[in-house]
Write a structure and sequence with these properties.
This protein has 2 domains: 157 residues, no CATH class; 67 residues, no CATH class. The N and C termini lie far apart (52 Å). Helix content is 49%, strand content 15%. α1 crosses α2, α1 crosses α3 and α3 packs parallel to α8. It has a 3-stranded antiparallel β-sheet with strand order 3-4-5. Strands 1-2 form a two-stranded antiparallel ribbon. A two-stranded antiparallel sheet has the order 6-7. The protein is of the alpha+beta class. The radius of gyration is 22 Å and the shape is globular.
Amino acid sequence: MTWRAFGSPGDLDLDFHSADRPVLVSRVLATCRSGCDPAEALEQAWSLSLGARIGALAEILARTGEEDALVVPLTCPRCAEPFEVRLSLAAIGELGREARGPRVEVRLADGPRLALRRPTGADQRRWLADPDLDEADVLNDLLLEGDMPAQAPGLLARVAEAMAEADLLPAFAVHSACPHCGHADDLPLDLEGLLLARLAGQARRLIRAVHRLASRYGWREADILALPGHRRAAYLDLLDQEGTWP
């Protein structure tokens, strides 16, 4: 699958304030899908694994050309000092592409082997809509081969570990040492939320650019968004310079 840069006219119709994140992610992916019928693109977005969806968001953000890394502010759990880590968008995208395989195999301590499919956006939407769902229901939903033991201490933990190893992005954690006190720890990150926040910021910047250029030149929104990003930036730079001209 290929993705285009965020910034076309229809992209500003996306509601980044939506509380329904699975729907928002699917709409972002369908909107930014290249060379595909919109209905088919939305169906494909729901069918992607959770890791593949996160990787696709990273690819879309990277294609804007304005960012090549996700800069994440963190706070050391020991000394409470702030610091930052940089995560390559290209690396996140690559991990997402690796997460499109159909199966994850789990071998239990007593020998049985289970094969599970990767959870998709459609699974996530369905699970969130069912308040009575428990972990056993989720596992049975994902089971492709093997028999789920009725009593298996640590089964859920083993399955979660195997799924995390096969699909790093949904439960992502960064191992980092604090530059202030040297404390090293694994810090969990909500990559999906961070990427959506960056795309929401991009939408706000585009709206501000449209407002300034439309107010100054009288151009239509569609015409402004159709301009290559470097040309929009050049016009905005000229407007910034006007205030310094004699």
